[in-house]
Specification:
The structure holds two protein chains of two kinds.
Chain A lengths: L1 H18 L10 H12 L6 H12 L8 H15 L9 H19 L14 H24 L1 H8 L3
Helix pairs in contact in A: 1-3, 2-3, 2-4, 2-6, 3-4, 4-5, 5-6, 6-7
Chain B lengths: L1 H19 L17 H18 L4 E10 L4 E4 L12 E4 L2 E9 L4 E5 L6 E6 L14 E6 L4 E5 L11 E4 L10 E7 L5 E4 L8 E5 L9 E10 L8 E4 L11 E4 L2 E10 L2 E6 L6 E7 L7 E8 L2 E6 L10 E6 L7 E11 L2 E4 L9 E7 L2 H7 L3
Antiparallel strand pairs in B: 1-2, 1-12, 2-5, 3-4, 4-5, 6-7, 6-9, 7-8, 8-11, 9-10, 10-11, 13-14, 13-24, 14-17, 15-16, 15-24, 16-17, 18-19, 18-21, 19-20, 20-23, 21-22, 22-23
Chain lengths: 160, 378
């Protein structure tokens, strides 16, 4: 159920990103927020499938080659998992910062892989920065949601 | 990588589905305003007429250049066997002899530039000269291309050529005026020659032909704009009609204004790189106040700013510059208006960009892809 909800929110966000042109880049990368939640807060680090699937959904409208986006999510998730003890951020502000930083990192990782044959090049900084900040907010919101949504909490706590 | 290309195709199809849900051009689409600039169109028409007149002489006809391959120094022109063009026909531009036809198809021909490696043409001094050994008054030689220029390789008195000697081709004695080939740049045992015509002269060339190309090379096809920017404010999403022949590389334009170029097509969905997208390149001709119309690459730096990459040998005309497509890029027709470029520090700014895009744009579909493929090197 959690997987389905995550996929549906990502699909909706992808559609909004396309329909909200020219404000599309400000729409948060929800797939990345879900990936970070499971990378940093699940007991069995069950973020790999989530990173790949949600990366593909978010990647439909991502400013990078389709294949690059889930790979970048996987890299961001792996980094988040590996450093969750090193950077034991627990507050909402910390989660927000990690989400925003991860969004920027994903964009930088995917920068050399332009989408659909377009020439390589950066985007406008303003809307992208808003998108990164909103991704951070989405990450913090999901962490907060995991405290009140039993099914999500159980999914994170599952060890089998 | 093959499968990566297939994945991108699948992604474009999904984008097409996503883009077909909801209002065309998104929730916040500005009302389209496709402005027409009669002065731009009039100036382009006048420039084309002047160029056609300058390249055309008796028995010659002006023909568009469709492609140029710098590595092999070859150009593809838009006239072929059906227009009377034949192998070894000389191809001429106002500056002089550009090269020779080395392969023909019914509607297209391949031109080998004089600068191409091992291209050869007999040449003679443009002016007679006294004091030469054996009391001869002229010098003859064979000009051979080196891949980037030319040099004189065969002739009885090669060491007698001097820097600045003007050379004419010995191919068409009836040609009036004689066909200029170049100037001796560096004398010696194998004198180096600065060629009169080169890639900068591509655009419209003249060939001996019985008649004008009989068939249009491009046909227009209407495309619906589904989203003006898709990937982080870059790239446009377009919907093609059933049975569309639109392919990657086709130019996208509206009312004679160049908007961009299609980069990928999957099913009925196409993605186009927009003129304003950072890194977008288009081969342009610059029409200034003077008769010179240099060609070069216009490269978008994003945010309405453009960089001009032009040969050192060509000078940027003074005054307001009108940039038009120069053709020579396989599927981009020549003489589509890009707009007036205003100098802005080291770069240029487009005075009247077409923004937003209209709900419907036109793609120019090239009709002779198979012939082009046969003429281009593998």
């Amino acid at each position: 159920v959690i997987f389905l909800v995550a996929a549906m929110t990502c699909g909706a966000a992808a559609w909004i990103r396309l329909a909200a042109d020219p404000f599309g880049p400000a729409v948060p990368w929800l797939g990345l927020a879900w990936t970070l939640l499971f990378a940093r807060h699940s007991r069995r680090a069950s973020f790999v499938a989530m990173a790949l699937l949600l990366g593909l959904i978010d990647g439909i409208v991502a400013p990078a080659a389709w294949i690059a986006w889930p790979a970048a999510y996987l890299a961001a998730g792996t980094t988040a998992f590996a450093t969750r003890r090193v950077f034991p951020v627990r507050g909402s502000t910390g989660e927000l910062a990690i989400g925003a930083l991860a969004a920027i990192a994903v964009r930088l990782i995917a920068l050399p892989f332009p989408p659909a044959g377009l020439p390589a090049g950066g985007d406008a900084l303003g809307p992208g920065a808003v998108g990164a900040a909103l991704t951070g907010i989405a990450t913090a919101a999901l962490v907060a949601l995991s405290g009140s949504w039993t099914r999500l909490r159980m999914s994170l706590a599952s060890v089998t | 990588v093959f499968w990566a290309g297939e994945l991108e195709g699948a992604r474009v199809r999904l984008l097409g589905i996503l883009g077909s849900v909801g209002p065309a051009r998104g929730f916040f689409a500005e009302p389209p305003e496709t402005r027409v600039f009669p002065d731009i169109q009039a100036r382009i028409a006048a420039s084309r007429t002047a160029r056609a007149r300058s390249v055309a002489a008796e028995g010659r006809v002006g023909v568009d250049v469709l492609a140029y391959v710098a590595k092999n120094q070859i150009a593809i022109i838009g006239a072929g066997r059906d227009s009377g063009v034949d192998v070894l026909d000389p191809v001429v531009v106002p500056a002089g002899l550009l090269g020779f036809v080395d392969a023909v198809e019914p509607n297209l021909a391949r031109v080998r530039l004089l600068s191409a490696s091992k291209a050869r043409v007999p040449v003679t001094l443009a002016e007679s000269r006294s004091g030469l050994p054996g009391e001869v008054v002229g010098l003859n030689a064979v000009l051979e291309g080196t891949g980037s220029g030319g040099r004189l390789v065969e002739g009885p008195l090669l060491s007698e050529f001097r820097a600045g000697d003007r050379l004419h081709a010995v191919i068409d004695r009836a040609a009036s005026p004689p066909l200029a080939v170049g100037t001796v740049a560096k004398p010696g045992l194998l004198p180096e020659v600065r060629l009169a015509a080169g890639p900068g002269d591509l655009g419209l060339v003249a060939v001996p032909a019985d008649r004008e190309p009989s068939r249009a090379l491009f046909v227009p096809e209407a495309l619906e704009v589904r989203a003006e920017s898709v990937f982080g404010r870059r790239g446009a999403l377009l919907a093609a009609p059933d049975g569309s022949s639109v392919a990657a590389g086709c130019a996208v334009h509206a009312r004679g204004r160049y908007l961009g170029r299609i980069t990928r097509v999957a099913g009925r969905t196409a993605v186009a790189s927009r003129l304003d997208d950072r890194g977008h390149r288009v081969f342009v001709r610059l029409l200034g106040a003077s008769a010179a119309a240099p060609t070069g690459q216009l490269v978008s730096a994003g945010g309405g700013s453009f960089r001009l990459e032009i040969d050192d040998a060509q000078a940027v005309p003074a005054g307001p510059l009108l940039a038009v497509t120069a053709g020579g890029e396989h599927l981009v027709p020549g003489d589509l208006a890009i707009g007036f470029l205003d100098p802005d520090a080291a770069d240029f700014r487009l005075r009247d960009p077409v923004a937003p895009w209209p709900p419907e744009v036109t793609a120019s579909v090239f009709l002779f892809g198979a012939e082009l493929e046969r003429l281009l090197p593998p």
